[in-house]
Amino acid sequence: MRKGILNINTLPIKWRITVWASLWMCIFFLLYNSVQYLVLDRWTLKQEELAIKKSMDEIIGYYEDNGSRDVTAGKSFLEKANQNDQLIRLLDLEGNPLLTISDGLPAQWVSPQPVETTLMVSVRHEREHLLILRSPLQIDSFNGTIEIVRNLENYEKLNQMLLLVMVLGGLGGIAFSSIGGVLLGRQFVKPIAKLSGTIANINYNGLSERVDFINNNDELSKLGQLFNEMMDRLETSFEQQNQFVEDASHELRTPIAIIEGHLKLLSRWGKDDPAILNESLNASLEELVRLKNLTQDLLASSHSEPIHMEKEQKTEPNRIIMKVVEDFAIIHPNFIFDVNYRSLSHAQLAVSAHHLKQILMIVIDNAIKYSTNEKTIMISGNTTTDHKVQLRIADKGVGISEEHIPFVFDRFYRIDKARSRKVGGSGLGLAIAKRLAEAYHGSIHLTSVENEGTVVTIVLPRWRN
Ligand code: ATP
Ligand code: MG
Fold first, then answer.
1. Which residues line the pocket of ligand 1, CB cutoff 6 A?
2. Three-class secondary structure of residue 339 per DSSP
């Protein structure tokens, strides 16, 4: 039995439901039908016994009323009182039959037997089931016995019919419940199979797979919905992790290169000149502070927080432009930076200094990277009427053909020309600059003519008192 149950438990859920449903139905039908059969059997037998007793009472009543003049004279009454498949016999004291009335029941099936007290017995004659009631009859000087023998053929037939109906009904019920079990199992297992199919697909196709479920608010559709929501979160956080690693490596590259430039300068000859020593150390320290801020920014963006705007911070664009240009001049001494920010002399930006520096570095890094023989970078700024500041960085480099311009702000978009490949890069710079500018409700856009140069315009909000 234990082994059987263990075997059932190793079946697929669909078949387990079917087997259990059929098994319980089987047990239920068996119990129910047995009880019903026994009750009906007892009840019909009781009815037969009552009928035979009633006949006996009528016959004895008749004889008591008519006395013992001639006990065999009651023949016509007994014929009337008799029923189908029933025998009535009047016996004397020795058991000799005085009168036998039978309707379809041969007298030799039951041998006469006188009694002193009323006695009911049930006997079998070959395949027939007979019920016999014997009762003593004493009227005046007559002493004898009345025997009534009843063939329970109808009762037997009824019982057999009942049994057949119950067995057929039971088998039908089991078949129905098995089909029901199969359908129920299939219905129940379908969403689970879908879920496991999706999980298997995720292994091959990646995190973008989702379960296709019907939203009918049941537990299984809830499971599908929860699974999809979980996958959404997982995918987002996975993408954020990726973005974090990419952004981190991109953004850390320039400050590290700047510090490296300053240190090389110092190690070559700067350490002997107190002015250069001081300036380079200060510049490196500042770059380290920026690195620290960058790391914090990157960490914040990895936790799906938007870029933390430091609106409370006033920044003088001139000072930052100057610093960035000085830093780049250290690592690219062959470049000429033509800076014109006089019109910004009183302007202040509502942007944090390190974010402004980050944007400028990305754009100037590109201007340098994509320059050809003309190594001049022009940087200028002016204020606008709508309380903003425009910074323009122009180079005379390779430029960008028209069809590529709309895409250069997309992550990882690189114009795959031999030159782009040679200078290296990941296609992240402009995407990061755009995200930063937009976090301050600013913007960044670019115009370019191939082989002539590119102009990048950065628009940022001014500080309001
Ligand atoms: P990195 O992630 O190192 O910055 P990248 O410079 O290739 O790599 P972006 O700064 O986003 O990435 O620039 C995207 C693409 O736009 C570049 O690959 C380049 O082809 C083009 N581009 C950007 N700035 C200029 C420019 N000033 N002149 C010419 N092409 C440019
Ligand atoms: Mg770049």
1. 250, 366-367, 369-370, 395, 397-400, 408, 413-415, 420, 425-431, 454
2. strand
In a domain, 352, yes or no: yes
Q: Quick check: 320 and 357 in contact, CB under 8 A?
A: yes
Q: What is the pLDDT of residue 153?
A: 85
Looking at the structure, tell me whether residues 31 and 126 fall in a common domain: yes
pLDDT in tens, 367-395: 999 999 999 999 999 998 889 999 999 99
What's residue 159's pLDDT? 86
Q: How many domains does the chain have?
A: 3
pTM: 0.52
Let me know if residue 178 belongs to a domain: no
Strands 376-383 and 336-340: parallel
Q: Return the closest-CA partner of residue 242 out of 108, 414, 428.
A: 428
**What's the confidence (pLDDT) of residue 418?**
63
Q: Are 321 and 342 in contact (CB under 8 A)?
A: no
Joined together, the tokens standing for residue 131 give 């019920």
Residue whose CA is closest, atom 18 of ligand 1? 414
Distance separating alpha carbons of residues 433 and 431, to the nearest angstrom: 6
Phi-psi region of 95 (alpha: psi -120 to 50; beta: other; left: phi over 0): left
pLDDT at 304: 44
Same domain, 255 and 293: yes
Q: Are strands 142-151 and 86-92 parallel, antiparallel or unpaired?
A: antiparallel
Q: Is residue 290 part of a domain?
A: yes
User: Which residue range forms the structural domain that includes residue 8?
Assistant: 2-159
CATH number, domain at 98? 3.30.450.20
* Residue ranges of the chain with per-residue pLDDT less than 50: 304-305
In angstroms, the CA 195 to CA 69 distance is 97
- Ligand 2 centre and the CA of 93: distance in Å? 132
